[in-house]
Amino acid sequence: MSGTSEYIFIGVGDVHDNVDMLARIPELKDAYGIIVSGDLTNGGGPAQAGNVLNAVRSANPYVFAQLGNMDKPEVNGFLEKQGVNIHAQARPLLKDGDAPAGTRPGILGVGMSNYTPFGTPSEVSDAQLGEWLDAAYDKADGFDPLLLVVHNPPVNTKTDVAGGGHVGSQTVRAFLDRTQPPVCLTGHIHESMAEDFVGKTKVINPGALRGGGYVLITVSGNGIEAELKQVR
């Protein structure tokens, strides 16, 4: 794809061991890569995450991924060894030489979630999510535009509603208020398939992959844009 001025990524999340919907995403054949925002498994470890990663790579070999709260903590090390991990990291979004002129697109990820009532495998304090975000952002200097991928949605948006209330992260919300990346891909709350704005940041939760939701992310000389879509 070198020499083109526009690149498409497919963003998904909450896979939970079920990748059946991937093959039905119509834009997948033209995609530069796939981004998994978290929850590759349903309480599994590296073996289960490996099955999902293999299926995703079969659809498209250029992958970014991070663990969610339903993945065991050791999935983080597995993804790191596989060279796809973005949790608590900032990395170039495109391969060397592919960035549109005058840009250096980057991707910043933070996985896991804040504490839930369910005691899932990878939960931390909301303060810890904020510390990871800040530390990764410090490493993101020079990336412009920047795509944020955070498993836990920001509080008080359409993307964090469960049981009639807002259950998202205060620190993710504060980070978005302060840094204003163009797009935040999130997940975690399956019933909140939605898009919303925090200031100028478009926040999109595609819900669980088995429901057919995904995000079409476009990277070009005009920046990063994103749209919530659903396989019908």
UniProtKB/TrEMBL annotation:
- Give the domain of life: Bacteria
What GO annotations for molecular function exist for this entry? Answer: hydrolase activity
Q: One Pfam family this chain carries?
A: Metallophos
Domain Calcineurin-like phosphoesterase residues, every copy: 11-191
Q: Which PANTHER family does UniProt cross-reference here?
A: CALCINEURIN-LIKE PHOSPHOESTERASE DOMAIN-CONTAINING PROTEIN, METALLOPHOSPHOESTERASE
Name it: Serine/threonine protein phosphatase
- Provenance organism: Oceanidesulfovibrio marinus
| Taxonomic classification | Bacteria, Pseudomonadati, Thermodesulfobacteriota, Desulfovibrionia, Desulfovibrionales
